[in-house]
Specification:
The complex is a heterodimer of chains A (429) and B (421). Chain A is mostly helical and 429 residues long. Chain A has 20 helices and six strands. Chain A is 70% helix and 5% strand. Chain A starts with a helix and ends in a 9-residue tail after the last helix. Chain B has a two-stranded antiparallel ribbon. In chain B, strands 3-4 form a two-stranded antiparallel ribbon. The chains are: A mainly alpha (429), B mainly alpha (421). Chain A: It is found in: Membrane.
Chain lengths: 429, 421
């Protein structure tokens, strides 16, 4: 057993094949069609299949990372589009799995309704984002203004239509399956769509808040794999037999270090640290600002313990690097639970991969399963520890209040500022 | 074909696989049984339902009289009971496989989500109360982070509780819990938000749904002939349309009476000095009588040229229409759900009526609709929430906001530029 386990680990194949064999009495796993491009096939034809798989995965990994860098270079708008595409593809992959179960019973409207709900939820979220960030643009165009004023009502009406369609589509004898699929669609929306919008919010906060978390998760994946490959011995969790404690811990330390270095490099550039803003005059996104104090070098005293190790008394760091430690820690310790969740899901529905989109890696969902919790965490982290509310948004809300409410707020704010000593005798300031 | 066969293995092939739920026990109290022993079964059932309906309506009136705080507690209890009923149904399927932690995890998630929502509400409405206490300050400031951390713990517990060979069922139950939370807990918090807007926004929608239920039943009983939908064979088109018109008229008249009392019309506020809820204010223009000129068509019918109405009554028409036309879909959804899991009622809590869920299935969509309606058409943002956010800003930001506000107010003539006040 020891030998076959290590054989599986070296192969890079998931051990779910042997797992599923014992579970389901010898039924063969679903064969995945090999869509490795012909070019690669020929180039690697003389290697044994074990190393071939390793090379295919390696090449594709490099290809994806290169692609990631290109997109970053192209700017926020392209990034937003890519996030949107990834979200749609993930949703499609999950729904297809459900559909394979559902379709065998000739039940109507499942796919149409799922896509419709995806559209509704995206419309709702994009509407909220657009209203916040493109406020002046929206106010200028009359149809946009009406759409944004009654946005929630319109989204709700759209959702309700879908809900009523679902109720009308219920077919006798298959109610339970239909309700399961309804639940399936909604949980998928909750996971995939909400997270993708949180990613876009993080992006608007500054590209560094988008790049560092995603890179940490990717780094943790790769580092844990490497540490596991070379030093792996103790299995981590029954769900994913490939994972080991050595890989987990090694990956943790490597990721924290990587996060520190990456943030150091990125904090120096304005295009990464400034919030993304929409410039009304040029009708494009700009990233230009005075870097906040998070991104200004400061002297930190090294604690005595580390002083003897490292030999310096103080070190110059960006405060953001301290935050990056928190982000990397989350990516290494809790992020993998997203991966275990996805592994359990794949076991539950007896599939090896979500889809065959990326040769050697499986579907898009397979690559993004650890990212989900990360996006929510970063968003909550920013909202709790970094930024306060957006002042211009507050002013907009203020302008819609009634005069007596406006006066009340103004007076309370004034009293607060006088209290703090910001507004002394300078009444006319 | 291979994939489909293997995916179809678990209990999805047809609806006949789950263990049948034992028939509900008859929990009618002894007193009622003896009093009605002389009647035939059909009328007996009718009387039981009727008496319980009156009992529930009386409890409702009593709680309204007792005030907003009691109403909030009532809403919370109903939410917990509905959640419990739905989870129990799921548990019956789940339990047969001896799977761990489903109930604990479900209650834990309920606690987390409630903590999150109440934290957001409490922070908004009890701002002055909260400012005074240090520990609460800390909890409020990092509220989202704490809620997320609590939720994550539950998520990790779920992942660690996965048992080989039963993954699919466990994932279904996880989704079950989350969809239930989405439906019951979110809606109950929207109900409370509506309540804080003014008790009339809580009473009129709920009464319209109840009225629609009752009048549709009565119209169906006397005139029902054409079935409405296969899901609920008892419903008829005559009941549906009759219920619609009666509900609109009822809503109209009921709002007229409620709009006259400050107790119902004013937003609920928390008075930190007396530590109580107060409903006292200058009624907004929605609740001040206005003259409306009738369109010529109605003039001929009614014989009046103008009529004195509250603007709120126009809104009540929208609310009643929704309650009669779309509300029933919530009921059909619940009927479909009961068919799917082969249960007659959600539980046996109320004799003759079933569980609490059975009474509230039409209310769900209503609460969300009222909330969306209010935010879109009635009120603007919440002033105290806005104030709270202003006070969190950095001092330089506060100063610049202050200057912008001041110039705006001076421009509008609300503030005198030269005085100090």
């Amino acid at each position: 057993l020891q030998e076959s386990e290590s054989e599986n680990k070296l192969d890079g194949e998931t051990a779910s094949d042997s797992e599923s064999k014992s579970e389901f009495g010898g039924s063969p796993p679903v064969p995945t069609s090999d869509d490795t491009p012909e070019v690669l096939n020929r180039a690697l034809s003389n290697l044994s299949s074990r190393w071939k798989n390793w090379w295919v995965r390696g090449i594709l990994t490099l290809a994806m990372i290169t692609f990631f860098f290109i997109i970053i270079y192209l700017g926020p708008m392209v990034l937003m589009t890519i996030v949107m595409c990834v979200q749609i593809k993930c949703f499609h992959e999950i729904i297809t799995i459900g559909y394979n179960v559902y379709h065998s019973y000739d039940l109507p409207w499942f796919r149409t309704l799922s896509w419709y709900f995806l559209l509704c939820v995206n419309y709702f979220f994009y509407g909220e984002t657009v209203t916040d960030y493109f406020f002046t643009l929206v106010q200028r165009e009359e149809p946009l203004r009406i759409l944004s004023k009654y946005h929630r009502f319109i989204s709700f009406a759209l959702y309700l239509t879908g809900f009523c369609m679902f109720v009308l589509s219920l077919v006798k004898k298959h109610y339970r399956l239909q309700f399961y699929m309804f639940g399936w669609t909604h949980v998928t929306l909750l996971i995939v769509v909400t997270q993708s919008h949180l990613i876009i919010h993080n992006l608007f906060e500054g590209m560094i808040w988008f790049i560092v978390p995603i890179s940490c998760v990717i780094c943790n994946d790769i580092m844990a794999y490497m540490f596991g490959f070379f030093f792996g011995r103790t299995p981590l969790i029954k769900l994913s037999p490939k994972k080991t404690w050595e890989g987990f811990i090694g990956g943790f330390f490597a990721t924290v270090l990587f996060g520190l270095l990456l943030s150091y490099v990125m904090s120096g550039y304005r295009c990464f640290t400034c919030p993304v803003e929409f410039n009304n005059d040029t009708n494009s996104f700009t990233v230009d600002c005075e870097p906040s104090e998070l991104f200004q070098l400061q002297e930190y005293n090294i604690p005595l313990v580390l002083q003897s190790v490292v030999g310096w008394k103080t070190v110059r760091m960006y405060p953001f690097q301290i935050h990056s430690i928190a982000l990397s820690t989350f990516a290494s310790l809790i992020g993998p639970f997203g991966g275990f969740f996805a592994s359990g899901f794949k076991r539950a529905f007896k599939i090896k991969d979500f889809a065959n989109t990326i040769p050697g890696h499986g579907g898009i969902m397979d690559r993004f399963d650890c990212q989900y919790l990360m996006a929510t965490f970063v968003n909550v982290y920013i909202a709790s520890f970094i930024r306060g509310p957006n002042p211009s948004k507050l002013i907009q809300q203020f302008l819609t209040l009634r005069p007596d409410q406006q006066l009340h707020i103004f007076n309370t704010l004034k009293a607060h500022l006088v209290d703090k000593g910001m507004l002394g005798r300078l009444e006319d300031a | 074909v291979d994939l489909e066969e293997r995916l179809g293995e678990l209990d999805l092939r047809s609806d006949s696989d789950i263990p049948d739920v034992p028939p509900p026990t008859d929990s009618t109290p002894e007193i009622l049984k003896r009093a009605l022993s002389g009647l035939s079964a059909r009328w007996k059932n009718w009387w039981i339902r009727g008496i319980l309906t009156l009992a529930m309506i009386s409890v409702f009136f009593l709680i309204i009289y007792l005030g907003s705080f009691m109403l909030m507690l009532l809403v919370l209890s109903i939410q917990v009971k509905c959640y419990h009923e739905i989870i129990t149904i799921g548990y019956r399927v789940y339990h047969s496989y001896d799977l761990p932690w489903f109930r604990s995890l479900s209650w834990y998630f309920l606690l987390c989500v409630n903590y999150f929502f109440y934290g957001e509400t409490v922070a908004d409405y009890f701002a002055t109360f909260v400012q005074r206490r240090e520990q609460l300050q800390f909890l409020i400031r990092y509220h989202r982070f704490i809620s997320f951390a609590l939720y994550l713990t539950g998520f990790c517990m779920f992942v660690l509780s996965l048992v080989k060979k039963h993954y699919r069922l466990q994932f279904y139950m996880f989704a079950w819990t989350h969809v239930t939370l989405l439906i019951t807990v979110t809606q109950s918090h929207l109900v409370i938000q509506n309540l804080f807007e003014g008790m009339i926004w809580f009473l009129v929608p709920i009464s319209s749904v109840i009225c629609n239920d009752i009048t549709a039943y009565i119209f169906g009983f006397f005139f029902g002939r054409t079935p409405l939908i296969k899901l609920s064979p008892k419903k008829t088109w005559e009941g549906f349309i009759g219920g619609f018109f009666s509900t609109v008229v009822f809503g109209f008249i009921f709002s007229y009476f409620l709009a006259q009392h400050q107790y119902f019309v004013c937003p609920v506020e928390y008075n930190s000095e007396t530590n109580r809820f107060v409903t006292e204010c200058e009624p907004s223009e929605l609740f001040q009588m206005k003259k409306y000129s009738l369109p010529p068509l109605l003039q001929a019918v009614l014989g009046w040229e103008t009529v004195n109405m509250y603007p709120f009554q126009m809104h009540s028409i929208a609310l009643s229409t929704f309650a009669s036309l779309i509300g029933p879909f919530g009921g059909f959804f619940a009927s479909g759900f009961k068919r799917a899991f082969k249960i007659k009622d959600f539980a046996d809590t109320i004799p003759g009526h079933g569980g609490i869920m059975d009474r509230f299935d039409c209310q769900y969509l209503m609460a969300t609709f009222v909330h969306v309606y209010i935010t879109s058409f009635i009120r603007g943002p919440n002033p105290s929430k806005l104030l709270k956010q202003l006070l969190i800003l950095q001092p330089e930001q506060q100063l610049s906001v202050y200057k912008t506000l001041k110039s705006h107010l001076v421009e509008k003539g609300i503030l005198q530029p030269s005085l100090r006040g």
